[in-house]
Design goal:
The structure holds three protein chains of three kinds. By secondary structure, chain A is α/β, with parallel strands linked by helices. Chain A is built from 15 helices and 16 strands. Chain A has two domains: 233 residues, Rossmann fold; 139 residues, Rossmann fold, CATH 3.40.50.920. In chain A, helix 1 runs parallel beside helix 7. Chain B is an alpha/beta fold. In chain B, 33% of the residues lie in helices and 15% in strands. Chain B has ten helices and eight strands. Chain B is globular, with a radius of gyration of 19 Å. The two termini of chain B are 30 Å apart. Classes of the chains: A alpha/beta, B alpha/beta, C alpha/beta. The interface between B and C is large, with 50 and 50 residues.
Chain lengths: 414, 305, 309
């Protein structure tokens, strides 16, 4: 074991290296490219044995990845944002192959307008793809979640591919101290790849992913896929226990920070959750009983865990770094659904923040805490809100002036 | 000594490896070519299927294959071939499987995929000299959805999206030339109505390393509107009129494997197909027939035959 | 509500027949729903379409499970279970079969008491595709059996639905349909409107939660080879090729190579034989045999002979 400063990208690449992957099909996209460059280098110098190949697109890359997994090798790949969506047809298709592999998505906002900075609309667009989803909030977790992802994906009860999500820029290009597990120990943790019943071999017939033209058998296949995904909850817990024994780091489905005994909680996902921790510390100092719940696993959705952790809280604020146009925040919606039949459920308030890499400041967490208090006192939660200040709106107006928005409208009137 | 053993019809294996009972139309020209190809390649193949008519070769729990098959998508079958080929190579290198477990990787794609959406993935696979065979069954339209025009539709053909009296306005894309421009190990055109020419070419491809591309014109009773018993007749006419040149590309050269001594007029091929009926009825359209004939003449003129 | 199911083969105009009936009922001021049912099967495979018509907006959807009228354009389908001609029939279901046989013949043959009406098959052939205009016979017959479609509406519906075809084709279809309509005047209105499934006296369902089964069981993978042979595509056939061994030159590579469906095999004499369970009846082998050693026979004649009817 050694401790080193690594970017989130490098940490994710290390996860793949420690998993001793055989095959990496790739396609470059910002802010993920460093991952595949790092892995290509390791294949070149012989630190990894197998193949690295650049495909013509993410759609092809995902096809190659899953096809190789169907043939019986351990596969890793990485993408981001538009690349993830370009591959989305195949992501939905190959999850139904029922073979394990791991894809890292480096979250980045979606077009249009095109942006390079992080939010979670890309990964949540794939929430129903049939891939499991793990979300890291530190560079250390980027590495550890990749390792755990292989164990979960390959478990005979699951046999589904996993996406590990890390935030662009805030993790991908940010260095933090990361403990790199010992290579032999990591291999012991993961074990050898076992293709079970699905692998292409001479003299062993296998026709895979055939058409199904009847609703009943289609329902069966899809429902079994769902049931296998649900299994990943207990498999994650088993894996985390084993991980803690071997590497001394403990991971829960939902990270609960000072939430035990708290009256108010923030609910978040991804790297900005550490900012919420910072805010929680300050709020505690100021005497507020506030905590944080951070989803580490989003698919399957740890519903029972969420209900348990929210029981008896006065109010909870979901801060979604995503926006479903015409609906609102995705995590808010899913959390609300989990709570709808619960007796001691908190008031749930929805915030949209951090779109396209916009910061969420400490003061904003404090404001949110005040709104939670008020909601509990008045028993009237506020409307959903975008975290957006007066100053920001003024700045937008300035840019619109330069873009000639007003001039254009005057011309149209004349 | 050459590795090729097939010299005459009787040398062609009569295995009928591709099982019957598929949902393809009666008289399907693509299935006709495919079952001939499968007999030459043998069962130690893994087919990677792009979306198209052949999607329905295997409908759970029925499969006509004796070896392996994977369904992918319209655009990315060659990428699946890459994944499978690489995985088999890795497993052999790492001694996790034996060389005898190895298989030939074969892409099966229609013209809709090959000429259009799947071209990027195919181009990239050829460029990487992927060791695979690519088979395009070309029925000159999006057949599985009811024969809309595709990039492979010939000039003046009526399709369900080119119904006017002049049919499809543009010309068929020369995918063979596009393939050849990649300098693959091998490329060939074939047709199910000439089983010997087909068998020789597929055998050659089987014995080579690298990207081998096979383009099979596939007369389609449903999409081209003719009686299912005329599939072979129409195939033969396609060759005899010079509309479908049987040729191969290897070592930088294109060689015709069958040169019609006296090319029949194209109208013999056209007039027995419903999709060209408007060129003859209710009034003969000499201009369009001549345009089609000129294209064919121009093609063969280039080759000085 | 009238619930009508029409059975035929891909390529026989069953979808259009359903649309003509739907259109005619619509012209008679009915609320109508018509649809074909598509599967993986192609030309020649058993398919069906259905029509619902009533005086109120139609809320039922999907396949008709309890038809009041079953129309069969191709009698060779009747004995094919997969065609589902008898699915959900009740005592009062009326059958119309386009057949040269009498209704007594079919009643006896099928052992059912239902009302069966037959009319001869059309003698008119579509020369391009070699099938008869049975679907037009069916349209005319169904129109009369329902008893609520006038001749004028039927004619107008045909014109409307076949408008993309040439005038001669439309006229021929009208002629054949109206002839069938006239011939069945004594059966006018024998099809009765059906009622929906009762909510207080229906058969209870047994819902089940599928057990969790790992990918070892529940992956959509086929581990056996050549299982498509279990699909009997020979049922698609209306004409069958028959090999005359005496004329055969044993050049099996021709018919065998050309057969798209791998449905020609060699017998112990090395002579080609047709696998009738799978031969779809494309008849390429008949056209291509250099010795003309393969002839054509009509399928329905063959099955009847085989069953000794």
């Amino acid at each position: 074991m050694k401790r080193k400063l690594l970017t989130g990208n490098a940490a994710a690449a290390w996860g793949a290296r420690l998993a001793n992957v055989d095959y990496v099909p790739a396609f470059p996209i910002t802010p993920q490219t460093e991952i595949i460059e790092t892995l290509a280098g390791w294949f070149d110098e012989g630190a990894l044995k197998g193949r690295f190949v650049t495909l013509d697109s993410e759609h092809s890359m995902v096809t190659a990845a899953a096809s190789a997994a169907v043939t019986g090798v351990r596969v890793f790949s990485a993408t981001s944002s538009q690349g993830l969506l370009y591959a989305s047809e195949m992501l939905y298709a190959v999850s139904g192959y029922r073979v394990p592999w791991v894809l890292v998505n480096v979250s980045r906002g979606l077009s249009s307008p095109v942006t390079l900075e992080a939010d979670h609309n890309d990964i949540f667009a794939l929430r129903d793809s049939g891939f499991l989803q793990l979300h890291a909030s530190t560079c250390q977790e980027a590495l550890d979640m990749v390792l755990m992802a292989y164990q979960i994906a390959e478990d005979v009860r699951v046999r589904l591919p996993v996406i590990v999500n890390i935030d662009g820029f805030y993790l991908s290009f940010t260095r933090e101290p990361v403990e790199i597990p010992d290579e032999n120990k990591a291999r012991e943790f993961i074990g050898e790849f076992d293709a079970h019943n699905i692998s292409f071999r001479a003299n062993v017939p296998l026709s895979h992913a055939s058409a199904v033209l009847q609703g009943s058998i289609y329902s069966y296949f899809r429902y079994e896929h769902h049931l296998a995904a649900i299994q990943a909850i207990s498999v994650f817990n088993e894996s985390a226990e084993k991980f803690e024994k071997m590497f001394n780091r403990s991971y829960a489905l939902i990270e609960s920070y000072m939430a035990d005994g708290a009256d108010y909680v923030f609910i978040m996902i991804g790297s900005f959750a550490t900012k919420a921790k910072e805010a929680v510390d300050m709020l505690r100092e100021a005497g507020s009983l506030t905590g944080l719940l951070r989803l580490r696993m989003f698919r399957p959705f740890p519903e029972e865990e969420m209900k348990k952790l929210l029981k008896g809280k006065k109010a909870a604020a979901v801060i979604d770094q995503n926006l479903a146009p015409g609906k609102g925040g995705v995590i808010y919606t899913e959390t609300a659904a989990a709570l709808c039949n619960e007796k001691e459920a908190p008031f749930l308030i929805s915030y949209i923040g951090g779109l396209g890499g916009r910061d969420i400041t400490a003061e904003e967490f404090y404001e949110i805490e005040k709104e939670m208090r008020k909601a509990a006192e008045t028993k009237k939660p506020p409307m959903a809100r975008l975290l957006f200040s007066e100053a920001e709106l003024e700045a937008v107006r300035k840019l619109q002036g330069i873009a000639g928005v007003e001039k254009k409208n005057e011309q149209r009137k004349n | 000594m050459s590795k090729e053993k097939i010299k005459k019809m009787r040398d062609i294996p009569f295995e009928r490896l591709l099982a019957s009972g598929t949902a393809m139309c009666a008289g399907c020209g693509a299935l006709e070519a495919l079952h001939q190809i499968y007999d030459i390649l043998g069962k130690n193949t893994v087919f990677v299927n792009a979306a198209g008519c052949m999607t329905l070769l295997s409908v759970y729990p029925f499969t006509p294959f004796r070896g392996s098959w994977l369904y992918t998508s319209m655009a990315s079958a060659p990428a699946a071939a890459q994944g499978i080929r690489d995985a088999l190579d890795i497993l052999i290198e790492k001694k996790r499987i034996k060389p005898k477990d190895n298989m030939q990787v074969v892409v099966l794609a229609g013209d809709g995929s090959s000429y259009g959406m799947g071209l990027s993935a195919a181009s990239a696979a050829i460029e990487r000299n992927l060791d695979f065979i690519y088979i395009c069954y070309d029925n000159e339209g999006y057949g599985n959805t009811g024969q809309q025009y595709s990039d492979a539709t010939p000039h003046a053909a009526r399709t369900s999206t080119s119904k006017s009296l002049t049919g499809f306005q543009y010309y068929k894309k020369d995918i063979f030339a596009i393939w050849a421009a990649h300098k693959p190990a091998y490329a060939a055109t074939i047709i199910g109505s000439d089983p010997l020419d087909l068998a020789k070419k597929v055998e050659k491809a089987k014995n080579m390393k690298g990207a081998k591309l096979i383009l099979a014109l596939s007369p389609c009773p449903t999409g081209w509107t003719f009686h299912s018993n005329e599939t072979v007749k129409i195939g033969k006419l396609a060759v005899e009129t010079g509309i479908w040149p049987l040729k191969e590309y290897a070592d930088g050269k294109i060689v015709h494997t069958k040169i019609p001594r006296e090319r029949k007029p194209v109208e013999e091929y056209l007039k027995i197909q419903g999709r060209f009926k408007h060129l003859f009825e209710p009034q003969r359209n000499d201009k369009l027939i001549a345009e089609i004939q000129n294209e064919v003449d121009k093609y063969w003129g280039h080759y000085n035959h | 509500m009238y619930r009508i199911r029409l059975h035929g083969r891909g390529g026989q105009g069953i979808k259009t027949a359903g649309r003509i009936l739907g259109e005619a009922l619509f012209l008679e001021k009915y609320e109508v729903q018509d649809a074909p049912r598509y599967g993986a099967e192609r030309r020649g495979a058993p398919i069906f379409s259905y029509v619902r018509a009533g005086k109120k907006p139609i809320n039922e959807r999907g396949i008709i499970l309890h038809p009041g009228l079953v129309v069969v354009a191709d009698e060779t389908l009747i004995e094919i279970p997969a065609a589902g001609v008898f699915q959900g029939i009740a005592e009062n279901t009326v059958f119309f079969i386009c057949s040269n046989e009498s209704s007594d013949f079919w009643r006896k043959r099928l052992g059912i008491d239902s009302q069966i009406i037959t009319l001869s098959q059309s003698e008119e052939y579509d020369t391009a595709l070699d099938f008869h205009y049975n679907s037009s016979v069916c349209v005319g017959a169904a129109g009369r059996l329902l008893g609520v479609i006038s001749k004028e509406s039927l004619k107008q519906a045909i014109e409307e639905e076949l408008s993309v075809f040439e005038k001669t084709v439309i006229e021929k279809n009208i002629e054949i349909s109206l002839k069938a309509y006239d011939e069945l005047s004594s059966y006018e209105g024998i099809v009765k409107r059906g009622v929906g499934i009762s909510a207080d006296s229906y058969r209870r369902l047994n819902w089940v939660e599928p057990p969790f089964e790992g990918a070892d069981i529940s992956a959509p993978a086929i581990y056996d080879s050549g299982t498509s042979e279990l699909a009997l595509t020979g049922l698609w056939r209306t004409l069958r090729p028959v090999v005359n061994k005496e004329l055969c030159a044993l050049c099996w590579h021709l018919c065998g190579s050309f057969c798209p469906d791998s449905a020609i095999y060699l017998d112990e004499d090395g002579a080609p034989q047709i696998d009738y369970e799978h031969c779809k009846g494309c008849l390429i082998c008949v056209m291509q045999c250099p010795r003309r050693a393969i002839s054509v026979e009509a399928e329905h004649k063959k099955t009847k002979e085989a069953k000794g009817a």
